């Protein structure tokens, strides 16, 4: 759930989503769900020469299972907050495992 919560804070930010088929799509993040399915608006394909048929497409829904990476602008990532949240989640998981 940590990544889902993190991506929710990036709504309306420009991101580049790299897919497992090596296609990269740049666009404005409009929504994300718990499966990390992503909706982008105002998209452009990074390599338009290779994918000219997508030049007319303006928004996409990307299934989370086909995403390889999501490239984020460094300015919008609060690394301290993300590190703290990661530590808290790891501690919560450890306490759940210790209680068994």
- Strand order within the widest sheet? 4-3-2-1-5
Shape: elongated
What is the distance, rounded to the nearest whole angstrom, between the alpha carbons of the first and last residues? 22 Å
Please write the string of helix (H) and strand (E) elements: HEEEEEH
SS elements, strand count = 5
Query: What share of residues is helical?
Result: 25-40%
Averaged pLDDT:
89
User: How many separate helices?
Assistant: 2
How much of the residues is beta strand, in percent? 25-35%
Would you mind describing this structure in some detail?
- With 100 residues, the chain is α+β, with helices and mostly antiparallel strands.
- It has helices at 2-8, 79-98, and strands spanning 14-19, 24-32, 38-45, 59-62, 67-71.
- Strand 2 and strand 3 (38-45) form a beta hairpin.
- The longest helix has 20 residues, at 79-98.
- The relative contact order is 0.19.
